[in-house]
User: Which sequence fits this backbone?
């Protein structure tokens, strides 16, 4: 069994956005030799860890390669296009923490296995606040021994690590989690709009929901904080939520599971991303029912 990847191992961190930057910073704080990379000049300038001159330079000699990118296609481009992996350490472990398509993750695993690299998927939930607190929930998929190797890294960034199954299982779980979250938010904002039109006080509605069976993550953390004041700044883009819900719907379809609500939610979030713009905050979906 390969040893766990512990400090001061060299780690490449690709994707230094609002989530990736604090996650990379936690690894550096724990003693890892982290080199970051991002295609965004602004992200590179604001990085809490040393930034390489290119993706290939970041990956050179790294024992672990972590990707935190918008989607699986970006992961494939970062790792497989050009010669980014030319100087990766033999037997390096790739940890895709992005929200990628589960079947695409398995295809990536096959492509990287031919290069002698192992892969696990380890997407996260908790948003920017928990990324900053190193208290993310992490959903891991892959060979048990490879997840064991990655555990010190994952534990440096999250409070809970769930072993979900074979490669791709973490991304499947993340897509399903976000589908449930997205459906809960749509129900909550629709209920708020209906109640407001009837004459109910929105603040009272939220209090009742949170003391009753309608309570969910959105009623607790998004209605009073983002929707009622119309600040719409929770930190997760509507386009990313649409992508994850679509992945959940495709997974259901591919497995022959009848999931009409998942299909309806995929259509609703795609519509929201089209009408509001993919970069809008996901809580702004409330504008579709209450302009």
Assistant:
């Amino acid at each position: 069994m390969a040893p766990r990847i512990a400090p001061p191992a060299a780690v490449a961190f690709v994707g230094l956005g609002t989530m990736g930057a604090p996650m990379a910073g936690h690894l550096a704080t724990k003693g890892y030799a982290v080199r970051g990379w991002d295609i965004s000049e602004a992200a590179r300038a604001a990085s809490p860890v040393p930034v390489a001159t290119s993706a290939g330079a970041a990956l050179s000699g790294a024992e672990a390669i972590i990707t935190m990118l918008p989607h699986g296609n970006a992961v494939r481009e970062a790792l497989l296009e050009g010669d980014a992996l030319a100087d990766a350490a033999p037997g390096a472990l790739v940890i895709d923490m992005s929200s990628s398509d589960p079947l695409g993750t398995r295809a990536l695993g096959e492509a990287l296995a031919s290069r002698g690299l192992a892969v696990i998927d380890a997407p996260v939930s908790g948003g920017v606040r928990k990324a900053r607190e190193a208290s993310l929930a992490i959903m891991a998929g892959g060979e048990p021994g490879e997840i064991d190797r990655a555990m010190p890294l994952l534990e440096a960034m999250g409070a809970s690590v769930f072993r979900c199954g074979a490669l791709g299982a973490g991304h499947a779980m993340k897509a399903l989690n976000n589908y449930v979250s997205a459906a809960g938010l749509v129900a909550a904002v629709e209920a708020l709009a209906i109640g407001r039109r009837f004459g109910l006080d929105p603040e009272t509605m939220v209090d009742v929901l949170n003391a009753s069976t309608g309570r969910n993550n959105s009623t607790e953390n998004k209605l009073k904080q983002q929707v009622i004041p119309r600040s719409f700044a929770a930190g997760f883009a509507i386009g990313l939520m649409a992508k994850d819900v679509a992945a959940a719907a495709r997974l259901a379809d591919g497995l022959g599971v009848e999931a009409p609500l998942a299909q309806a939610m995929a259509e609703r979030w795609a519509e929201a991303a089209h009408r509001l713009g993919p970069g809008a905050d996901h809580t702004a979906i409330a504008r579709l029912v209450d302009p």
